[in-house]
Design brief:
It is a single chain. The protein is α/β, with parallel strands linked by helices and 229 residues long. The chain is built from 5 helices and 11 strands.
């Protein structure tokens, strides 16, 4: 079976529209949206954007085959309204099935106050961008380490995350799942633009090579090249 993982789609930005072509090309059995699915300019009510995005998605794939997680950019206190869409998951912030664990990766949300979280994210981005490459190398390790501790992810399980706009396998079985947003956050588009596919049996991954990174080449989108490790 094939699982398609899309992170940081940021609908309705131009590159976000690639998700339909990716689904058509990959023909997955299931899809995970890892959060920051929409780019809500009006932070007070991103729900309308979610409903619009999900409405378009429903014309492409049955929603009971979709795992739909939320990130720091696209949820507020009204996100429970999304329960009506009949996704696989009922928890929109963290989900596990088989030996796969999914979390957007916004570890700033672990802080007790939302304002502290936003400040920590901005400070972290500044420090990483001005650390002469050291921070860029450390960032995914810090995010995955903190996430594994917070959600008690077993060492041999596969952890899939987004948030930092990076497409890379790091550490043990930590996979950062890229973005469809063609704007530099910390990493250049060549390091971040793409998605992940996973071959599995009943949501159990048997070997690392079953996880494939698919880079979207600029400007030859939507064609993707598999990056094998």
């Amino acid at each position: 079976m094939k699982l398609l993982i899309l992170s940081d789609v940021h609908y309705p930005e131009p590159y976000s529209m690639l998700y339909k072509k990716i689904i058509e090309a990959e023909k997955p059995d299931n899809i995970v949206f890892l959060g920051d699915n929409v780019e809500a300019k009006d932070k007070s009510n991103p729900i309308k954007l979610h409903e619009r995005f999900i409405g378009e998605l429903r014309g492409t794939l049955e929603l009971d085959r979709v795992i739909y997680l939320l990130g720091d950019n696209d949820y507020n206190e009204k996100f429970k309204k999304l329960e009506k869409f009949n996704f696989i998951n009922s928890n929109f912030l963290f989900f596990s099935i088989g030996n796969m664990y999914f979390f957007h990766g916004n570890i700033e949300s672990f802080l007790p106050f939302s304002g502290a979280g936003h400040f920590a994210e901005k400070l972290g981005r500044y420090l990483v961008s001005n650390s002469f490459g050291v921070g860029k190398a450390l960032l995914p390790k810090v995010v995955s380490f903190a996430s594994r501790i917070k959600y008690k992810v077993p060492n041999d399980a596969y952890l899939f995350e987004g948030h930092i706009h990076l497409l890379k396998k790091t550490g043990r079985n930590d996979i950062f799942c890229g973005t469809l947003r063609n704007k530099r956050l910390v990493y250049d588009p060549e390091e971040s633009l793409g998605y992940v596919t996973v071959e599995h049996r009943n949501f159990f991954v048997s070997k690392k090579s079953d996880v494939k990174l698919k880079r979207l080449d600029l400007p030859s989108i939507p064609y993707a090249k598999a990056q094998r490790h």
